[in-house]
Automatic annotation (TrEMBL):
Organism name: Nocardiopsis changdeensis
Record-linked PROSITE patterns: HTH_CROC1 (PS50943)
Record field: transmembrane: none
Domain of life: Bacteria
Sequence ranges assigned to domain HTH cro/C1-type in this UniProt record: 14-76
Protein's name in the database: Helix-turn-helix transcriptional regulator
Record Pfam families: HTH_26
Length: 97
C-alpha cells in the first residue's frame, strides 16, 4: 500500500458546513464512505484545535467530504493551496512516468 501524505483539514469547518446542510454525521460518513467515528474524529481533532493529537485524513477523503458537502476543498482545508498536501503517487506510478 503506498504511503499517502495527510491533508491538512479544518475540522470545525467540516462540522459547521455539515450542520448548515442539515446532515447528520452518520449521513455524511455514509456518503463519503468512511466510518461515522472517523468523521467525528476529523471534525474534533485537527492540527489547530488539537495540535498535540491531530487526526489526519488523505487528500482523497478530503475531496470526497468536500464533494458530499457541495463545497470546494479549500473551504475545508487548512492554509493556502500551495501548502496543502496532495496525493503521493504509488511507486508503480512514479516508475511509469
Amino acid at each position: 500500500m503506498p504511503v499517502v501524505q495527510q491533508a491538512g483539514h479544518n475540522g470545525p469547518a467540516i462540522r459547521d458546513i455539515r450542520r448548515i446542510r442539515g446532515m447528520s454525521c452518520s449521513e455524511l460518513a455514509d456518503q463519503v464512505g468512511i466510518h461515522e467515528q472517523s468523521l467525528r474524529n476529523l471534525e474534533l481533532y485537527d492540527s489547530v484545535t488539537r495540535p498535540a493529537d491531530p487526526k489526519g485524513c488523505s487528500w482523497e477523503v478530503l475531496e470526497r467530504i468536500a464533494a458530499a458537502l457541495g463545497v470546494r476543498v479549500q473551504s475545508i482545508s487548512r492554509g493556502p493551496i500551495g501548502q496543502m498536501a496532495s496525493p503521493v503517487p504509488a511507486k508503480d506510478e512514479e516508475d511509469a512516468a
